[in-house]
Batch of 3 targets.
Target 1
Amino acid sequence: MPPIISTRRPCRICGKEFSTFKGGLERHENRCEELRQRNLNRQHRDQEILTEISQLSRGLGVLREEDGVAGPIPRIISRDITNDIQDIDMSIDGVEAFDEVEMNIEGPIYGPNLPRSYIRKQFHPRTRLPDRIISLDDSPVDNSDPIQAAENNAQVYGDNDLQPWAPYPSYADFLFASRMISTCASDNDINFFLRNMSNGVFCKSGSSKLSFQNAAQLRKVTDTALKLYATFEEVPIAVQYINSAGKKMEHKYPMWVKNGMAMTREMVKDPGLKDQWIWYAEKQSMVVDSEDKGEFITHPMSGEAAWEAEGQLNPGVEQVQFPYILYSDKSNAARFSNVAIWPLCIRPANLPTNIANKNSSFGGNNCIALFPKIEPPDGNKDDLKWPLMARAIFHKALGVVLEYFKHASKDGEAIDCADGQRRTLVVQFPIIEADLEEQYYYALTRGNNALHPSPRCYVSGHDQGDLLTPCTLRTQEESKAYCREASKHAKENRTDDAESLMKSKGLHLLPNAWWKISRVDVHRSLSFDVLHSIWLGVWGKHLWPLVLSELSSEDKTRVVKSMSDAPSFFGMIRIQNAMKLDFADGKHFFSILQQILPYIHGFLGPRFDPVLRLIRLLLEISLHAQLRLQFRSQIRRGEDLVYEFGYQLKMVEDMKYFPDKNFNFPKMHQLVHLFPDIVAKGTANYLSTMIGENFHQGLILAYHASNKKEALKQIARQEDRNLLCSRIQWRIDSAPKQPGGPAHSEDEGDENTGGVGSPRPVDLCPLQEAEYGGEVDEDDQFPLLIVDAHSLSPLEAWHRRKMKGRRSQERYGAHLVELRHAYSEVRLEGIERRAGGINSGQIQQKGGFYPSALNLPAFQGFHTGLVTKINEILCQLGDGYETGSDTETLEVLPIVPYHQLHHFYISHDTFLPEKDIIHALPTFHGRPRYDTALVTTPEGSRPARLHLIFETFRHGMVWQMACISYFTRYRSSAMDKRIGMHRYQEEKQGEFIMLASIERSCYLAPIPNHPSEFYLNDGIAGDVDLFLRIADTPFDI
C-alpha cells in the first residue's frame, strides 16, 4: 500500500499535534494563546485573592471526599471566585456516570467563566461547602485504574515496610492461595498442586516461586492473618417456648455474626479508599452545550433522603452520614438440600459501584451475619402462634447484628480517616433490599392476607391493583405508637382490643429490632426491587401466564420457532423455549418481556389488545427503571407510565375480559413506589436485589466444599478468607508499582480476540491522512485497525479526533471503531489474503463476497457504486477533488473484508462511552449474521443491514466503509402504536456508507407470517440507550 502523507503539525505553544485541514491547527493555536494570556494575568492578581485560594486548596481534604476521584487535588470553583481553576483528574466508572468524575477545564471558557458543558454539584447549607463545577468540555487522563491512581497519589501504603501481599511470603504465594481459597479447593487438591510443583512434574524442578510445601502451611498463614480483622463468631439465639406437654422449654438457634462497625472503621482508615468516599449529600444538575438539562439523580447521596438526613446533622463538615445498603434473602444450599443459607449483607452506599457492588470484596458487598434456619422447635408448623414466634426469632437475631451500630447511629463515632481528617460517622441504613416476604419480616406486617398488607403503606388489600389512587405511607413512629397502645390494652387484659388494633393496621405486636437504631425508618428504607416485583412478579407470574393461556398449541410452536430463529444481538439472552421456564430466573423472564411483542401480537384476538398495551407499558417502565442517570423529566415520564399502566389495567378489569384473573396482589401495588424510591434513594441499580442474589453463588460453593455437618461454621470461615484475599489484592492494586514488580492484570488481551492486546490508536480516516498503522506478523496476519467513529454528521467524524467532554483517547480508546479482520476467522476459497486478491470488480461480477451468499441484489453494481460514492464524498468536501475520469472509474479497488466492528458510542443514558459489536459474516454459531445498525443520514437516523464491512484504497487514502441496505418505515397502524414499535420493510438496493456514519447497533425483529416486514425493537437486551434514541420517533396515526 503506498504511503500516506501526514498533514498533522505540532502546536507552537503546547506541542500537541493537530491537522492542518481547514485551519484546525490555526484555530487551536489561537485558543492556546488565549489560554496562555489568561494564565499570565492570573499571576498578577490581588494577594488577598491568592490567599483565599490557598486556604481553599488546603481545605480540599474536607471538600473532596465525596467526589470519589483518586489523583491530584481536584478543582473547586467557589461562588465568589469562579475564575480560579486548578487541574482535575477524572475516574471512569461505566455505572457511576459522573458521580466520581471531575475533568480538566482547558481552553476557552464559554460564557461568564463557565464551560459550555458541565455538571454543577450543590451541597447542603449545613456543610457550608461551595458549589462544584465539573467541566465536560475536555478529555482528561483516565484515572480509574487503582494502580494508576496510586502512582498519581505518590503514596498509598508507602510508609509500610511490609510488602502489600503480606503475610504471604511472595506475590506468587498470594496468587496461589487466593485462587485456592476462592475456588474452595480441598486440602487434597492443594497438596496435589504443591507436590507436583516441587517435584518437577508441572514445572522444572526448583523453578517454582511458591514457598508453601503443603496445604497446612497455607491455611496457617491465612488463619493467622485473619486474627488482625473482625471475623465471624457464633452467637446462639435462645428462645423460650411451651411444648405440647405444657412444659416450658428453651431452644437455641445457631447464628454467625461479624462486627459490622469494625469493618466500617477498617474501610475509612484504608488509604486506598480515601479518595473514593462520597461524604456529603449533593444535588446534581447538568448543562450540555449551554443547554440546561436540569437536575439528575445517580447514587444514593444525590437522592432526597440523603439531603434530608444531611440537614439533621450538626453544622460543619466534621459530622458525616455513612449510609449502608442492607440485603438479606433465604435460599437452599442445594436443590434437594434441607440446609438453609440466610445471609445478611451490607455494602456502603457512598462508594462507587465498581467497588461497592463487588461481592465478598473489600469495600464491597459483604456478609456480616448468617441467620439461623427458623423452624418450630417441636416441628409443629401448624401452631397458630408459630408465625408470630418466627418473626420474634428473626428480630432477635437481627438485633444482635444491629447492636454493633447502635451507638454510631445515634451520636456517631469519631474516626481518624485515611486522608488525615477526623470525622464523626453517623451510620444509617437508608436502603433495605429484600423480596416481599422478607419485607414483611422487617416491617412486622401480617403479609398478603392482611387488611393492609403492604409493609410500606396503608393500601387496602382490595385496592392493590389500583395504581391511580394515592396511598398513605407508613412511618416508624406511627407503628411504635400502635404497638404501645396495643401493649397497654394487653396489660389491662384487653387482649381482644389489642389484637383488633394491630389487625386493623396490619401489624404484629412485637418490638422491632430497627427501633434500637436511630435515624432509620424501616418502612421508608424498604425499597422497590425490579427483579422480584416486575420481572418475576407482575410479568413472570401474572401477565406472561395470561399470554400463554390465550395461545393455542400451534401458536405456541410458531412463537417458539420465531424466537429461536430470531437474529442475535449484543447482550441478548436467547430463549430456546419460552413456553417452559420452570426454573428460570428473573433475567430470563425479562428477556422474554423484551422480545415477545413482535412475535405474539398476530396470534391473539382483539380482546387481548389491552393486555398487549399493558405488556408494552411494563417493558417501558422496566427500561426507565434501568436508567443510570435519572433526570427529573425522565422520572416524570416514568411516573406517567405507571399511571397509564394503572389506567389500562383498570380498563381490562372493568371490561371483564378475564373474569377469573385477580390483579389485586402486593407486587402489582409495589409499582407505585418505584419512582418515588428513585427520587429518594438513587437509581434502581442501588435498590435491586440482583447484587445480593449473585452473592448466594459463593455461599453455595462453600457449602458443597464443607463436610455438611458444620456447614454454617465452614461457610462463615470461607467468607472470612475470601475477604482477607480481597483486602490483600486491594492493597496490591493500590500500592505504587515497583520497577520489575508483578503484573497485576490477569489478561491484557480482549476476550473476543483470543488474547490479542489492545492496538495503539491509529488514524485511518481519509481526511486525517495518518500513516497506515500496525505491523504484519510472521503469520501474515493483518493488523488491527482503529478509526474515529463518532460524528454529528457522516463527514464530521473524519475531522474530529475526540468527542466533546468524554474519555481520554489515549487511555480508553474512546469513540473508536475497532475492526477485526475476517481472515482470522474464516478462509476464503480461491481468494488470496493480500490486497489485490479480491477487488470490487470481482464482487460486482459474483454479486457478493462470501461464497455462501452470492448473486445478492445489494451487491449489484458494487464497483461502480463504490467509486461513485467515494467521488461524491470528495466533491462534497470541496477540497480540490473532482470526479475521476472514465479510466479511473474502470480501475478496480482492493477490498479488505472484516467480520466484526467493535463500535464505541456515547450513551444517551450515562453520557459515557459504551461498546457494542456489529457482525457481518455468513456463519455465526451455525447461522448467518448480518447485523443492523442506526445510520446517520441527511433525513435523520435510519436502520440499515450491513452486508459487508471492508476497507479499500483510493486517491492515496484508506476508506473504511460498509455495503448496506436501508429499511423503510411503514405508515403506523393501530397495532404498531399499541405495542410501541415501528414497522419496516428492507430495501433490496445496496448502498455504501462510511463507518463513521454508524450511530450504534439496533435490532429488527422479523414479523411471523410476514417475511419482508420487521419491527424495530427498542427494548432488546434491556438496552436503555437504544430505547432513548428511538423513544422520540412519533407514530404517524
Target 2
Amino acid sequence: WDRSNLANDRLKKLILPTRQGKELRLPIAVALTALCGTAAFTMNAVHTTAQPERHIQLMDLVDSDASAAECVAEDEHLYEEMIRVIFQSVQCIRLVTESIPDDEFFSSFSYGDGNSVKDQKPLPFVLERVATFFADTILLAPSGLDSETDENPLWGNYSRGTRSLGSNVDSILHRAYKGLYGFTLSNSNDGLPTVAGWAGQEIKPENITTAAQLYRCVMRCRKAPPKAALLTIMAAMPRVGETTQSKALEKFLYSSSSRFSHTDVRMLVKQPSNCEAKFSEISRFLEMSNSSSTRNSSNEEAEILRRGIAEVYIEASMPPLDDTPEKDSRTQCAQMEKDLWSRFEIILHNLTHYTCADCEGWFRLAQLCLFKANVIADRLGLSKGFSRSNDFMPPGRATTTRQPRKELSKLVDNQEKEFHLRSIGRTESLGSNLKLYMQHSWASFESLKLLHEKIGEDLKSVLDEEDDTSELQIWNEIATLYADGKFSVWEQAWGGIFVCSLRTMATKCMCLTLYLLQKGLGLSDADRRNALIVETCEGLGTGAYSEQLGSQWYGYPMQIMPHIVKRDVAQTALVCYSHAVKVNSNKEDAKADNESWDLFFMMGKCHEKIAGTYGDEAFSYPDSMRVYETSMRSALESYSKSLLQAQACEKDGSLLVEQQGGSSHGAMEAVYRLHATRLKCLIDAVQHGDDEREQAESEALRLTEPFSFSGNTDKASEHGSVRDRVWGVAVDVANAMVHCRTKHSFFHRSIYRHSQCLMWAPVLSDPGHLWQEGSSGEVPALKALKMRGLNSESAVESAAGVIRAIFDKKRAQLCAVWVTSGAESPFQGINCHVRKFDSLRGKYISAFITCLQLCKKRDELENFLRWANSSRRDLPSHFGDTAGSNPPTGHTSDTLLVKARSLSSNFFLTSVKRETNAALASVILHESKATKVLESHLKLSYSCLLRLNADLSSLQKRRARRSRGVKQVVDALIAIYSAFSDSAPAAETFDWSTDGQVCLQLEAAVKRCRELFPSVSASFLSKRPTQRKKKDADSNQCEKIVGKKRKEVDGTFAVVKQFNVEVPEGLSSGETFITEIKEGNSVKRIRLTVPDGATRPTTLKFNLRVQGSPEPSNDADSP
C-alpha cells in the first residue's frame, strides 16, 4: 500500500497503488478481496496443531460455492475468534472497495475461446461470493445462539451480537448486487430499501444456491422486497413440469365454459353443500393438500424459494398507478398489467403445485383480477355517459314522462323480454382459455394485437365460419374494426371482453376461497378463518356491486345494463354482505356488534338498487304494499342501523375520521345516505300521475317519517294534511344536508342533494299548481322560511346559489370533488374508481349547468366553457385518443356529435362541453326573443354551431341533428337567423318532421354566417374572461376619462388622448395592422385589429396616455 499520495494522511484511508496505472487497481482489489475471504480458514495459526487444517484456495472460492458448514466449530471460543477474524476481513474489504470508483467497480472483461466468450465483472462477482460466505457463516449461529428465523428456512436475521457486523456485510452485498444484476438496494428515509436504476438485466443468478443467498439478503432488508430483486431470483428458478393437480386447478380457473353465475354465488354463501358439483374435479386435491402428511413435505431449496416468494407477493399491496391522464399513462398502465401478470403467475404456480388449499393465496389472485378489471373499466367510459343528473329538477309539466306503470308480474315479464332481446349476439368472452386476458396487456397495442391474433387462430381451428351465432362471427366483427383503422372502437370492444373475463376468474377464486373456508380446509385457526370468511364475503359483495357502477353491462357489445341484471347483481351483493354481518355477530367480543356498520351501509345501497328496478310497479289496490316500498324500507332500516353502529364506533374511538373529502366521513356518510334516500322517495312520489299521486305520497310518508333527522318520530299521520307532512319531510332533509356540510366542509355530495331539494321545493309544496312552472316557481313565504337555503325568489335561484359553492374557482377537475385514497370499507372501495369519480363530478356539473341555463347566466356559462376547454382530457378520452399507438392530441377539435354505440360520444369532457354549449345556445335564443334580434346574437349562435366540430353534411342527418346537445344549437341558429333576416320575432317552435325544409334553413343560415363572420371560430365568446383588478395605488388612481391629466412620478403630466386611424385598404375582418405614435423623440408602435361586422370600417378610434401632443402616423404596415 502506498500512503504517499494521500491528500489528507490523518484520514488513514487506504488507496490502491497508482504508480503502475489504473489498470492494476481492479485486479489488485479482486485479489485482496479474495484473500480476505480466506481469512476465516487460518484459525489453525492461533490454535493447537491438533485441529485439522481447513484451507480454501482462491480458485475454489471463485469457481464453487462456499459452504458455511465448513466453518462450524465445536468450541465456542473458536466461534468468537472466527467472528473477530470475519469482522477484520469485512473492514479490510470495505476499505478496499470504497476506494474504487463506480466506473471501475462495474467494469467487465471477456474471456473464453472463440466458440464461447463470456463477459464477467470480476470485483462484484468475487465480492458477492465472499460476502455471502460471511453472511451464511454468521446466520448459521454455531455458537449456540438462536437466530431469528421464521417458518421459511431460507430466511433469517442476524443473531444478537452480530447485527452490526451483518449490517456491514449487507452493505457490501448491496453494491455487489448492483454490479451483477443492475438494481440497487438503498436505504430510504424511513429505513426501508428501495430499488433504483434497474432496467431488467438479462444476467441472472447461476444456480439455486446463489439465488437463495440473494433472497436472504433482500429479505434481511425488509419484509416486502423490491420487485426487481424478486424477478432476478425467479429468473434462476428451473422450469417445473405440469402435474395432474396443476392441470386440474388451471382448468378450473382458466376454462371459459365453467362459470359461477350470481345464482351459484348466492347458493354457495347460503347453502355450500349444494355447490359440491362445481368443485368436484379439484376437491380431492384440496383435501390432499390440507392433510398434514403432505403439507410442506418437500425441503428442496428451489421449492422453498418459490413458496417464499409467493408468500411475499400474497402479502404485497397492489402496484401503484397514476390515474391522471399524462403522455405516458398508457405506458404506465401496460407496465402495471405486466407486473400483475408476474405476481399472478408466481402465486398461481405455488397454489397449483404445492399449497392448493391456501385460502389467502386464492383470495389474492381474485384481488389481482379485479384490480386489473377495474383499471381497464376506468379507461373505457360509459354507454350512459358521465354528464347526467337524473331527477335533479322537475320536468316542468303536470304529467310524468315515464311509461305507464305496470303490475308486478307484467313488469317482470317485460324486463325479462328486454334482457333476452339485448342478449342476442352478446358474449362475455372469446376463446376457451381465460389465461390470455391476464397474460396480455390491454393498454399495449402490440400485446392486444397479439391476443387478437391468438384468439382468432384458436376460434378458427374449432368453430365453423358458416355458423352465424358462433364466437368466430363476433371475432370477425371486431377484426373488421381493426381492418378499417377504427383502433379506438377496436380497443374498447376488447376492453369490455377483458373486464368480463377477468371478473369471471376473480369470482372463481373468491368462490374457491369461500369453499375452502366453509369446509375447514387451509386454515386451522378459527378466529382467522372467520375473519377471512367475512373478508371474502365482502370481496364477493363489493365485486358484484361494482358490476353495476354506471349501469354499464360489459362484454361485447357494451351497453346499458338491463333492470333484471342490475337486480340480480344487487341481490348477490346483498346476500354476501348479509352473511358477513351474520359471521360478525357470532363473535363473543362486545365490540363486534359495531364492526358491521359499513356492511349495513352497503346492504342499504343494495336494497335501494333493488327498489329502483321496481320503480315502475303500479298500485294494485289501496291497502297493498309494493315491492318497491318493501325494498326501500329495508334500505332505510339498514342505513339507520349503520348510523347507530358508526356513532358508537366514533364514540369509543374505533372509527376515526381523518380524511376530508371523498367518502371517508364516518357516521356522517350514513346520515347523508339515509336522508338522501328519503328525498328520493319524495321525488318519486310526486312524479306519479294525478290518479296515483295520493297513494304514492302516502307510501312515501310511511317510508320517510319514521327516520326524521330532527328526532321527531311522532306519528304525523294523525295531524295535518298530506301537503304539510310532505313539506315537513323536505324541510327535515334540507336540514340534514346543511348539517353534513357544516360538520365536514368538503362534503360535496350534500351540496348536490341540498340544491336538488330546493329545485323540487315548488312541486313538493303544491304539485297540482306548480308543476308547469317547475323549479322557476316560488314557494309561499311562510313555507320558504322553514327550508334552509330557500329564498323568497324562485327556487332555481336559491339552488344555484347553493351548488355554486363547488364551482367557486377554476379547478383541474372543474368542480370541488375529491376521491377517497385507500379503501378501508366496501363503500370506500367502490368510490376509489375513476369512473365513479367522473360520474360524481359529471352529475354535479350537469346540475350546475341546468341552474345557469334556467337563471339565464350567459356570462357564467361562457366562463365555465373556458374552464372546460382549458382542462385536460379524462382517462377514457386519453386512451381513445392514443389508441393504435397514436400520439396524444388536444380535445378542442373533438366532435361533439352523438354517434350510435360509441363510447367516445359520452366521454366526460365531451359530454360536459356539449351540454354547456347547448345551454349557452338556449340562453342566447331566449335573449334574442326578449329583445330585438341583433347581429351579435347570430354571431354567438353561429359560434355554438362551430363548437360541435361537425361538417354541414353530418348535421343534415336527422338522427345527428336531433341528438341531445345538438338540437338546441341548431334550433337556436335557425330561429335567430330567421328573425334576423326577416326582421321579425323568432318562431316559438319548428316543425322538425319536414327534414328537407329544416336542412335548407340550416344551410342558408350557415352560408349567411360565413359571409358575415368569416373569422369567427369555435372559441369565440361574447366577453373576455374577467380578471381581478390590482389593488395597488396606481390602479386605484388610473383615470379612464379622455383628456384627464395625471402627474407622473418625474413631475411631468400625461394625458389620455383619442386617436383616429385610417384602416388600410384590402384588409378584412379579423386581420391586423400596425400604426406608429410619435411622442417626442420616441415612437410607439400599436397593433390594431379590424373588428368583425357586416361592413368593413374605414377608420378606427383608440385611446392612449401620452405626453405632449403627438400625431398618429399615416403609414400603416401591411397585414
Target 3
Amino acid sequence: MPAAPMPLSGTADAAAAVQSGQETSNVFPPPVAVATASRSAAAADGSISVENPLPDVPDTPPAGSITDEEQLVGVKTGGKRGIVGRICCGIEWTKRRLIICAAVAVVLLIVFILLLVYVFAPLIAQASINSAVMTLTSTTITSPTNSTFQLAAIGTVSNAGFLDATLTFPSAITVYWTNRDNAADLPLGTLSLTPISVSGGIPKSGSIALATSFEITSAENMGLFAVNMIHASSFSWLLSGTASAQALGMTFNNLNLAKVVTLEGFGGLKNVTVEGFTPSAGANNALAIMVETGIVNPSNITIEMGDMYFTFDLGTGVGSMEAVNITMKGGFNDLTMNGEVVVPDSNGSVNSSISSLGLGSVVTLDVKGDHVVSTSGYVGWLNEAFKSLELNVTMNLTDIAQKSISSADLSLTATAISDAKESSFQIVATGEATNAGTMDATVTFPDPIKVYWTSRPSGAADLLLGTMPMSSLVVSGTSPKSAPINLDSTFTISDTTAMGEFATYMIQGTSFSWRLVGGATAEAYGLTFPDLSLDKVVTLSGFNSLPDPTVTSFDLPDSDSSGIHVVTTATASNPSTITIDMGTLDFDMAYSGTNIGTLSASGVSIVPGTNSLSMSGRMYTTDNDLLSTLFSKFLTGTSLNVNVVGTSVTTTSGVQPSWLNTAFQSLTLSISLPSPSLSQAIVSGLAIPAMTIAFSASDTTGDTVTVTASTVTASFHNPYAFSITVEQVQTNLEFYDQSSGTAFATISIPLTSASLSGTTVYTSITGQSLSAISGQESLFANLFKEITTGSSATVGVKGSVTSVVKTDASSGTVTISGLPLDDSMSFSGFDGLSGVSLTSSAVVGGDSSTGLHMQVGATINNPSTITLQLNTDVTLNAVVGGSVIGTVKLSDLTLSPGANAITTNAYLIASSGDSTATANLETAMSAYIGGSSTSLTLQGTTSSVPYSSLQSAFAALSIGTTLAGQTSSLIVSGVMSTDLPTSLVGSTITISNPLGAAITIKSMTATVSYSTTAIATIDYTLTNPTTIAAGGTATTEKIPLSLVLSWADLLALVETVLGAVSGTLHVNIASTISDNLGTFPNTITYSQSNVPITLNLLG
C-alpha cells in the first residue's frame, strides 16, 4: 500500500532526530533525486527545459526484485536483504512520491532562474556601475572654439563589481560642473564615451581612452567653469547618461550612468620663476623687454591657449607683452613673454630706462591677462578664464646674473703653455662661454681664480693646482648669450707635487678637467651685481702619450769612442688642443728593457696635430749579447722596436721644473726603427780564388767532398757610415742550380778568422764538407762535370753569414747573425784536361793477360785554380785509330793548378777477337819500336773513377796526345855467308834491345835490299827463338836467305859496290817480326836502313 504524503514538518523531525542522537543516514532525499534536478538547464532559445528525473517504473516489480515490504522489513529487522534509503525524514519514499517531488523542484528552479535573469542581474549590473570609480590621469584640450573643443583623456575604472563586463554608451553623455560649494550643478556640454571594459580580479577594473569632441551647450556656464578651473585647486565633472552592459553572455540595456570625475585645477598658476630678463632699447623711448619664465601647472590638464596677451606694471611704467603659440601643459612650462614699457623720462638707452623706472637688483613685475587668441580666433569662455589670470613675478636680477654664470658652458679651443718655471708658467687660451643666460653683461673676476684638477681617476678628490687671473668676459648676442674667452695669464702653482701628478696625467690621458672656482662681478643695465660665484668645469683633451709615433728618417752617420752617432726624425700626433713649449728634451733609448743609448731634441714645442722631432744621440751599451741581437735583426730586414723614454726637460731659459720633468719622465714613445733600405746586399760577391777539393776513398759515392781554401773573399757593404771591423765569419751556404733554382749541395763554414779591408772581407775554409743534398745528387755530379770538362762553372749561392765585428757601440765584439747571401759563384774549370803531353815512355814488361806494360811520363796542365785530390787511381782507355788498345792508369791522382808531371802505367792489349784493335795495337807498337809517333786518345769511361759524383765528368773526357817512338835501332849488324857444299846463303843478325823488357824473336819475314835493289828475302821461324834481355844484345841463329838476284848478279853487285866480293855491305831491311815482349806475344813491322852486313860469300 502506498505511503502517506510527507508532512511539511519532516525537516523539523529530522532536526529533532539529530538533536536526540538518532541515526540520520536516511533523513535526506535519495542522491538520484538531487542529481536529476541538477541536470535541468535553459534551452538555447531562453526557455527552460527539465530532463526526465527518473526512468519509468513498472507497477509490478520484476522477478527477483525487492518489494517495498521487503525493504521495510529489512530496515526494521536488520534483515540481510534490506536496502537502506527508502525511508527519509520519517516518510516512506515510494516511486510516485519521488516523481512528484522532482517535478516540484524543477518548477522552483525555473522560477529562480527567471528571477535571476530578469530581476536580479540588471540590479547587479547597475550596482557595479554605481560603485565604479572613474579617474582621468591625463587630459588634453585642443582646438577650442566658442561651441566645441577636442578632448583627449586617459584614465582608469576601478571597484567595478565582480562581473567581467563591457559598457557601451548609446547616446551622448552630458557633462555637468558639480560640487560647486552647495551651488546647483551647471551643464557644460556633451561628449561621446568610448566602450569601457572591466575584467581581472574582484573588484573588476579597466582603462579609459577618450578622444572626442566636447560640444558646449552653454557658453556662459563654460566661461564660469573655465575661470574656476584656472584658479581652483580641483574641480568635478558629473558624467550623466545611459549605458548598456554586456556580461554573462547577456546584454542589459537602459542602465543609468551618473559618475563624478574630479580633476586638478590650475591653482592660479602661482608657481612662477624668472629664468631670464632681457631689456633692450625700444622705439619712441620705450623699453623693450623679454621675460623668460618658468610656470608650473599643478594640474594634469594640458590646454591649447594660442597667443596670449598681457598688461603689466614694471616699476613706474606700464606696458603690454605677448606670448605666442602657447600650450599650457601639466607640470613645468617655459613661457617667454615679449613686450615693451613706455618710459617718458628716458633718453632711449637701456640704462637710462632702467634708472627712470626706478628698478634695482630686485624687480617686481605685475602681469595680468588681457586677452587670448586661439587658433580659431576669439573664444569667449577661454578669454573669460584668461582675463581672470594675474601673475605676480618677482625678479631678482642678481639671481639671474648668477644663473647666467652658473648655466654657462666654458670651452677652450686653443691653449698654450710656455715659460715653465718651478712655481709658475704662462698660459694663453682662447675659447668661448656659451649658454650664458639672457643678460648682456660684463663679467669680471676681482681675484685670481683657483684651478682644481677635477674628475680625477677612481673618483679621487679635487686637487688644487694653483691660481691664475681671469680676463673679463663680455656677454652679448642672442639668448642664450655667449662671450669670447681670451686668456693671457700667469698660472701660479700652489703645489708642485700635485702639479707633477696632474701634468703626468695630462701627458698620458685622453682628456682632463679643470674646475675654476672664484668670485665674479657682473655689470648690466647700469647696475652692478657683486659677490657672484664662479664654479665651472672646463674639459680639455690630453696628449694621450703622443700616439702613433713614426720614424721618418734614421741614420748612423759615424762613430767614435763614445758610441755610434744616431740621427733620426720621428713624427708624433698630439690629439690635444694644447701647445706646450718644452725646450730641450732628453731621452733614453731602450731595447728589450735595456738602455742602448741616448737621444736629444732641442727647441721643441709640442703643438696640436702632427709634430716632427729631430733627434740625435749615441748608441752604446755594455750588453754585447743584446747589441748582437739588435744588429742582427736590424741588418737582416727586421724593423727595430725601441722605446724612447723621457728623462729630462730643460726649458729655453735653462730651467728644469720638477713638475714638468715628472710628467715628461712618464712619456714613453714606442717607435719602430726601419731596417735600412739597401741599394745592394750587405754580403755579396762571394769568391774562392783557389781551393782544394778532396775526395775520400772510403766514400765511393763522392757525394761529400772536403773543401780547403786559404782565401775566401766577399764584399761587405755597411749601409751606414759608422766604423766596423770584421774579426770572424761563419757561413751556411746552399749551392743551387740557377736555371731551376733547385738547391743541391750545402757547406757550413764555422767561425773562422776574418779581416776587412775596404769593403772586402777575407777569410778561409779549412777542410769543410761540401755535401750533396739527398735527392739532388745528379745536380751535384753535373757541377763536377762542368768543372772537369769546361773552362768554368757557375752556381747559385744562397744562405746566411754570421759576422763577429767590433764597433764603437760597445767595448766588446758583436755577433751579427743571419746576414742574407744570395749570389752566384764561379769556378775555373779543367777544360777537359786538354793540355796533356807524354814526355817519356818505356816498355817495362808484358804478359798475355795484362798486355804490354809501358811506363809513360806525362805532363797534365790544369788551367783551373782548383786542386783536385782524388785519392784514388784514374783509369783511361788508350784509343788508337778508334780502337781501344789498352788502358792508362793514373795512380792516386792529384791535379794542382798549372803543370802536373806524373808517371802513368799503360797496359796495352786488344780485346780478344777484335782484329781491328789488334791491328791498331800492332801498328802502334810498330811505330813505337820503329821510332815513329802515334796519335793517342785517352778516353774516360764511367769506370774511370769509383766516385759516383765524378763518373759522368770523367766519362766525358777525351784527351788527345801523341806517343813518341823510341829512337834506338834494333839491328846492330849481320853476317851473310855461303854454305859452299850446298851453295845456300844465310845470315846471322845481331839485335840490340832498347826496351825495358826482354824481346824474344820467334819468326821473321823480311826483304833485304841495297838501295832500291832487292837482294834477298827472309821467311823463317827460328829453331831456337832468340831472346834479347832488356838493354842487351843477342845474335840469332843463321837465318836462311832466299836470293832475289842470281848468284852472279849478287857477286857483280857486291864487287861493284865493294870492289871485291867480300867486305861490309850496308843494306836496307824491311821486316815483320813475331816476337814476345816479355811474355806478351806481339807482331811488329820494322824497317831499318844502312844495316852493316859482313859478306862472306865465297866461304
